Amino acid sequence: MRNDQKIEQKLQIIPLGGLGEIGKNMTVVRFGEEMILVDSGLMFPENDMLGVDLVIPDISYVIENQHCLKAIILTHGHEDHIGALPYILKQLSVPVYGTKLTLGILEGRLKENGVDSGNLRVVTQGEIIVLGCFSVGFIRVNHSIPDSVALSIKTPIGMIVHTGDFKFDYTPVDGKMTDFRRLADLGNKGVLVLLADSTNSEKEGHTLSEKTVGIAFNREFQNAQGRIIVATFSSNVHRIQQVIDTAVRYRRRVAVLGRSMVNVVNISLELGYIHAPEGVIIDVEDIVNYPANKIVIITTGSQGEPMSALTRMAMSDHRQVDIVQGDTVIISATPIPGNEKIVAKTIDNLLRLGANVIYSRNEGIHVSGHASREELKLMHNLIKPKFFIPVHGELHHLFAHAKLAEDLGMSRDHILVGENGFIFEFTKERGKVVGRVNWGVVLVDGLGVGDVGNIVLRDRRQLAQEGVVIVIVAMNHETGKIISEPQIISRGFVYIRDASELIDEAKNRVSQALKTCAESKIVDWSTLKIQIKDTLSQFLFESTRRRPVILPVIIEV
After folding, report:
1. Each residue of 451-506: pLDDT tens digit?
2. If you ran DSSP here, which 8-state letter would residue 142 be given?
3. 78 tagged catalytic
């Protein structure tokens, strides 16, 4: 009876990140009292998250159920899939499974954050591991970073296939193609649920091979007369390899700039994922020893990040490299949505300094790492799932992917489009949304994790938009009498010297409010501060239609 009861238990898939957004990918797979966590990614802050460095998923549901958690499984080494782990592993002590390069990059991140890496477990593509009631298989797929895998997750009621980030590249840089046979075998045996990457679900056709970027690099290197500076994502190891290969072809030395770029290149060289002839890679300090037409610099900053090496070069603020007339700068990436303006500003600054900037996708110097619609169709036809959950994308991506599945013949009631926190529940015959768990985001600001919330962000926005007014009053605490005229300091609100009448009237309003309090024998400081704040806030809004942050300071004399 117990075994029958176990077979009838329901399977739950609970996304905590990655649905309705690009990044922050994290999914719980649960059966009864056992669960695994797939990926633990971060995303970069939106424009209104002032001062915030990173955004990671709220894992309160996982913490509450950590007695059920068997392991964390990683699909590949991009930050939107592993970037939250330096913070999460301070709260959870479980095995973390991933391929060699994925864990090599993660280990570097953990060391930077002082987190123990003793729970990392290396797996190989093609391997199957058993975690409680789950059997997890690692299937080789192509992406813009080596060692990427899709996952087959065998559960007591059926098979789940999670594609991770993927595309079908028939001429991969490292020669390792997607394991089509394994995917087809899974489809022939029967798959209950498919979770598939939706990032490029609105793009027709096929995504170009990464090798086409190498062809574009060859063209630009051939034409360049001076130094070549290539900016790309530090985790795009295949792209970095093609830069090195092209540099070798044109007898150039390669220097690497940017902390994350240096770390990934060193790890990839050590683990054998990047290959370079001896002497090709040099220290950045040594570039002065070579003619300009014999140098290539690989750097971070393709997204215009304020502190990145390329941005600092564009601002003439880098201590080692100055942009000079004749430099060729290749930005081998497209801006993440929201970064367009800062990338354009970086390009403008580079052009102003005399660089030749190559940045258009039409130049062929960047291709996506995600499957377009024809590849998604092939994945669906290989897997032939009973149920489908589109993942990894904003809502319009998820709905486009759902429509694609429907066009391929899948029943609409077997396609489940959801959002973060949804509980997708399955039996062998049914799949539906049955509720929602607590979910959300945790903001990382400097060394603070989670100490910046909505109230702090609201105050930061108000400070940024309206400024701050500080009111300093010296008072006799016992009598409540003002010892001297209130002093007003303005920052980001008005320039005091140009607004003397406004400031004088503000001082009068504060004095009147305090006088009224004294007559009413109100001497409690917190009450006095509220009176000052309310009085001044109303006056300033009536006078300027602005609401600065008002900070009353009472000095006891």
Report:
1. 455 665 566 566 667 778 888 888 776 666 777 778 888 887 776 676 778 888 88
2. B
3. no
Whether the pLDDT of residue 188 is over 70: the answer is yes
DSSP state of 417: -
pLDDT above 50 for 115: yes
Tell me: pLDDT of 252 over 50: yes
Report the b/e string of 270-304 with b at 16+ CB within 10 A. ebebbebeeebbeebeebeeeeeeebbbbbbbbbb
pLDDT at 98 over 90: yes
- Mapped onto helix, strand or coil, the DSSP state of residue 550 is strand
Identify the H or E element spanning 465. helix 454-466
Q: CB of 56 within 8 A of CB of 80?
A: no
Kindly indicate the confidence band of residue 515, based on its pLDDT and cuts at 50, 70 and 90. Answer: confident
- Which pTM value belongs to this model? 0.83
Question: Is residue 420 a contact partner of residue 20, using CB atoms and an 8 Å limit?
Answer: yes
DSSP assignment, residue 67?
Answer: G
Confidence (pLDDT) at 6: 44
Residues 6+ apart with CB under 8 A from 265: 234, 240, 256, 274, 281, 298
Which pLDDT value is given to residue 7? 42
pLDDT over 80 (residue 449):
no
What order do you get walking across the sheet with 134-140 strand by strand? 128-131, 134-140, 149-155, 158-162, 191-197, 385-391
Instruction: In whole angstroms, give the CA distance from residue 169 to residue 372.
Output: 11
**What is the structure's pLDDT at 4?**
43
Is 197 assigned a catalytic role?
Answer: yes
Amino acid in position 191: V
For residue 151, give the nearest of 96, 80, 75 by alpha carbon: 75
Active-site residue, selected from the candidate residues 238, 370, 380, 401: 370
Tell me which of 58, 169, 197, 445 is the catalytic residue: 197
Strand partners, 73: 38, 97
Which two three-digit tokens encode residue 261?
Answer: 């770029």
Phi, psi torsion values for 168, nearest 5 degrees: -100, 100
**pLDDT band of 418, cuts 50, 70, 90:** very high
Structure tokens at 291: 């003619």
User: Residue length, the chain?
Assistant: 557
Please answer whether residues 109 and 85 qualify as being in contact, where contact means their C-beta atoms are separated by less than 8 angstroms: yes
Residue 144's nearest CA partner among 283, 333, 8 is: 333
- Distance, in Å, from the CA atom of 146 to the CA atom of 177, rounded to the nearest integer, reads 11
Find residue 436's DSSP bridge partners.
Answer: 422
Over the chain, what is the mean pLDDT? Answer: 88
Distance between CA atoms of 209 and 385, rounded to whole angstroms?
A: 27
Query: 264, 234 in Cβ contact below 8 A?
Result: yes
Beta strands across the sheet bearing 54-57: 54-57, 441-445, 448-449
CB neighbour list of residue 189: distance below 8 Å, 6 or more residues apart: 159
